[in-house]
Amino acid sequence: MGEEELVTMKDRIKALAAANTATVIEWRRWLHRHPELSQQEYGTMAYVAERLRDMGLEPKTGIGKTGVMAMIRGGKDPDGYCVALRADYDALPLTEATGLPFASENPGVMHACGHDMHTSSLLGAAKILCDIREELNGNVMLIFEPSEEMYPGGARMMMDDGLFDEVMPNEIYSFHCLPEMEVGRIGMRKGRYMASTDELYWTVKGRGGHGATPHLSVDPILIASHIVVALQQLVSRNAAPMMPTVLSFGKIIGEGRTNIIPDEVKMEGIIRTFDPQWRLECHEKIRKMSCGIAESMGGECDLFIDYGYPPVINDDACTQQVHDNGVAFLGEENVDWLDLRMTAEDFAFFGQKIPACYFRVGIHIPGTPFCNLHRPNLMVDERSIEVASGFEAYNVYMALHNRIKQ
After folding, report:
1. What are residue 316's DSSP bridge partners?
2. Is 267 within 8 Å of 204 (Cβ atoms)?
3. pLDDT tens digit string along 54-109?
4. What whole-number distance in Å separates Cα of residue 3 and Cα of residue 9?
5. Domain architecture of the chain: domains with CATH
6. 350 Cβ contact partners less than 8 Å away, ≥ 6 residues apart
7. How much is the mean pLDDT over the chain?
8. pTM passes above 0.85
9. 271/238 Cα distance (integer angstroms)
10. How far apart are CA 339 and CA 318, in angstroms?
């Protein structure tokens, strides 16, 4: 295919994205009104499957309990080459505070991480790709993933349930919305991009008693406090300066009273980094420091480490392709190279098996205050849906045209 034909296809995809925008926004608003928590996405699964059937596809449902997969068979498919697109669609346990007319109708549950935008954009891309399927130089796998927000994560659950048993994609792509980035922009990073994540659960045991006679007790609150402070040295004095590492505590509960020292304290936190060997060393150091401090103060410490998602590692060639296609589709001024992020994503499991790129799409409404993900007042500039659906379709079309991993 010549350069002129590629330009014509780019313009055609842009026109289709624009023509579909109102419909895709309707899909997004339905999803936003009907959010479902991880491993409970039965209504979402049914809705997505119905939209795919409307496009003439034959979705498979119930993969990984509540996931959906569908194939678009290209008209130019000599050897079964396949590019996969993935979106996640679970919501969060938050009460919405946006005041939107299509706000959540499910009390205490909200799409506060943009997964409704991800899913509707992938449906929009699927609609475009169905319209141009005769021009596709291969096949497209559409993956709608549940339970991204809850370990072990929908990616692994779907793969364990046979997602790739019949077709193993040659490349896979996904994106996440980015509130810091204005609508109309995308960004990406080669190689290491997002951190591994492990959850930490401590039970610090002492001997409770009256707050006025602490010498007769073994105070687990004091022990827990020493553990919290000491473990900050894990990052400042044990992690190499060139190895990003984050250790954070998110929950500390000692159920005593003003004058009651409790018997135990429970704590929860996370450890995030990028290097697999250092990750394991972190676990051992956290365990030794926690238990050692507790024992030295007359108490005990039990630590459970829930081994979570690996780091997101973007394939260099796939990421360069996303960059170059972004420049062609959106203009060089709207494409950014991004820094490392200490957030985590179970898309990493896909990237361990298939050359992958996980990129970002801007959703910030110009002139409005910044609101981060996982907040009850998160707002999405819906113009980002046309950008995302059009670019996803274009990137897949070009990936099949270029076949960079053949």
Report:
1. none
2. yes
3. 999 999 999 999 999 999 999 987 788 999 999 999 999 999 999 999 999 999 99
4. 10
5. 3-193+311-402 (3.40.630.10), 196-307 (3.30.70.360)
6. 84, 86, 155, 159, 172, 174, 356
7. 95
8. yes
9. 13
10. 17
The 3-class SS string of 186-240 reads EEECCEEEECEEEEEEEEEECECEECCCHHHCECHHHHHHHHHHHHHHHHHHHCC
Specify whether the CB–CB gap between 173 and 83 falls below 8 A. Answer: yes
User: Among candidates 96, 136, 106, 102, which has minimal Cα distance to 34?
Assistant: 106
pLDDT tens figures, 137-172: 999 999 999 999 998 999 999 999 999 999 999 999
**CA 163, CA 315: separation in Å to the nearest integer?**
21
More confident site: 77 or 386: 386
Q: Using an 8 Å Cβ cutoff, are 34 and 44 in contact?
A: yes
Report CA dihedral (106, 107, 113, 115) to the nearest 10 degrees. Answer: -10
Give the C-alpha separation, 78 to 75, whole Å.
Answer: 9
Contact 243, 275 (CB under 8 A): yes
